[in-house]
Amino acid sequence: METLKSIFNKLIFICSVIYLYNCCATSNNQSDTSKTEAPHAFYNNLDTKEQPKSGTSNPSFSNPLHCYYRVTSPYGYRTNPVSGNYKCHNGIDLACTKGTPIYASMSGKISSRAYNSIYGNYVIITHENGYKTKYAHLNTFGAYSVGDNVSPSSVIGYVGSTGQSTGPHCHFEIIKNGVSLDPCTRIKF
Description:
Blueprint: H1 4-28, H2 41-44, E1 70-73, E2 76-79, E3 86-89, E4 92-95, E5 101-103, E6 108-116, E7 120-126, E8 131-141, E9 149-150, E10 155-159, E11 169-176, E12 179-181
Antiparallel strand pairs: 1-4, 2-3, 4-11, 5-10, 6-7, 6-9, 7-8, 8-10, 8-11, 11-12
């Protein structure tokens, strides 16, 4: 017989999934007649990106992967597949082939390029208006160093499985003034 805590955790998980689905569905279904989706957009939406609304300071982010991928873990609460802990996943995991190039999501300056036991090889880019993006579990780094300016055409690293990872993917985060944001609210995945 399931314990009350187990049932409660499952209920929280289901609510998180519903919230994320609604959040991503809302940001993905906004009509904008200036955008045209490529025929393969159902799989990866690489040729489209959410444009900031008129009068706002939301910058335009682009997808860090320019290839086929699948979302293996969305933003939100989950059971960590490595540690087993139930906590917030502050980014989105995009699984694809090891060695796939990872591009800067927006122009900015590389503020960190390092290794730690959780994220493995990772890159942090500082952008305007208090935004940062993080790319983790890289197999290897691109040619850019800390302090270098990058643009969306800059390869900042290559997909890998370093740190606490169960397979090759790019863990991608968007951070605004130190607070993580759901990448689905800024980019169509």
